[in-house]
Amino acid sequence: MLFWIACEDLKRETMTEAVEEKARAIYDDFISILSPKEVSLDAQVRETINRKMVDPSSHTFDEAQFQIYTLMQRDSYPRFLNSQIFKRLQQQHQQQQQQH
Fold first, then answer.
1. Rounded CA gap, 96 and 100, in Å?
2. Minimal CA–CA distance to 41: which of 52, 30, 54, 55?
3. DSSP characters for 27-91?
4. CA–CA separation, 53 vs 13, rounded Å?
5. Which H or E element spans position 64?
6. More confident residue, 25 or 73
7. 18, 32, 41, 43: which one has the fewest Cβ atoms less than 10 Å from its Cβ?
């Protein structure tokens, strides 16, 4: 989620110097294999990002963002919907609705 938010923030940036700075921070925080917050990307997308980092733009991470979105849609979100924490929240919400 943090990666997604950082990419959306980068897309709103208009100043070239700030774009480069934010792109470098996103790369260091989420793309670098040394990052503790590394996102799961295939080799092709990773290579595309490496090429784009020579001259980063506000859309440098678009492919990665799409790949992460797809992964969340197919894997993380369905698992969340089946998790005990979601089921408890859903149950609490239903109980609150019945009280009103």
1. 7
2. 30
3. IIIIISTT-TT-----HHHHHHHHHHTTS--TTTTHHHHHHHHHHIIIIIHHHHHTSHHHHHHHH
4. 16
5. helix 62-71
6. 25
7. 43
pLDDT tens digit sequence for 41-70? 999 999 999 999 999 999 999 999 999 988
Taking the C-alpha atoms of residue 77 and residue 97, their distance in angstroms, rounded to an integer, is 24
Tell me which residue has tokens 């239903």.
Answer: 94
Q: What is the pTM of this model?
A: 0.77
Instruction: Report which of 46, 57, 2, 66 is spatially closest to residue 24, judged by C-alpha positions.
Output: 57
Task: Annotate 38-75 with b (16+ C-beta within 10 A) or e (fewer).
Answer: ebebeeebbebbeebbeebebebbbbbbebbeeeeeee
The tokens describing 24, both together, are 């470098």
56's CB contacts (< 8 A; 6+ apart) are: 19, 20, 23, 24
Start-to-end CA span in the chain (Å) = 33
